Amino acid sequence: MSSLKPGTVVSLTVDHEVPYGFFLTNEIDRVLLHHSEITDDIVEGDTVKVFLYHDKDVRLTATMRIPKVQVGAYGWVEVVDKKEDLGVFVNIGLPKDILVSADDLPKFESLWPNPGDQLFMTLNRDKQDRLYGKLATENIIAQVSRKAPKELLKAKVKGRVYRLLRVGTFFLSEQGYRCFVHESERKAEPRLGELVEGRVIDVKEDGNLNVSFLPLKQDKMGDDAESILQYLSMRNGSMPIWDKSQPDEIKEKLNMSKAAFKRALGKLMKENIVYQEEGWTHLKK
Description:
The structure is a single chain. The protein is of the alpha+beta class. The protein is 16% helix and 38% strand. It has helices at residues 138-144, 217-234, 247-254, 258-270; strands at residues 9-18, 21-25, 30-34, 47-54, 60-63, 75-83, 87-91, 98-101, 118-125, 131-135, 156-165, 168-173, 178-182, 195-203, 209-212, 238-239, 274-277, 280-283. The strands form four sheets. A five-stranded mixed β-barrel has the order 1-2-3-5-4. Helix 2 packs across helix 4. The longest helix is centred in the last third of the chain and has 18 residues, at 217-234. It is elongated. It comes from Bacillus seohaeanensis.
């Protein structure tokens, strides 16, 4: 068994040159450093620091381009591809992309990362010493996250989703704050690795943040009013719904609660854009 392991950074001695690169050694085993992976001039006898990995032919090889993500070292990496039932591939700066297994991803593929999304992860080795990506656990996130100041209340924060649970979404902000979004504070569940932005609604004693993806009531009223106008426009300016309609009827036709509908409708009536008559709402001509 080789004393050299993929996923690690080692210092090796330049043994001798061959037409396609240099062989490096630790006086026990040798590994090839291809010309394309050399970043500085080297000669026989030099000591060089390299990262070890398996190439596409599953041969142990070396590179002087040291990736931030290693066995035991975590970092953000970009998703470059995904394969149904297999998982997603990430670029850590090597000629060969690394697989994050489907076993480490959400149950539903619709919540898997898309190319361009980013994951916070490390590298592990399987029984055949092949490298694969492993997502950071909650314990690791707790170690790398920062305590948020109370002044962040009501501020906007942006970051990447690192964990999905039925009860809500966890993301790490760009400043390193651990953020949680309860399912009631979002319209839809974001993907793992997706870049999200929300509004801080609570700064916890431990420095973690509770965040909402929903707009403020006054902002949402504008969105709901626009939805009502669009619906009226599709029906030639009239709809068989008014402020005394049943909640389930409003929900079915406009996908909003009765309270939200009445707020938005009141705004439109105050602005003299619509009027109500005998169970109907009409656009003013």
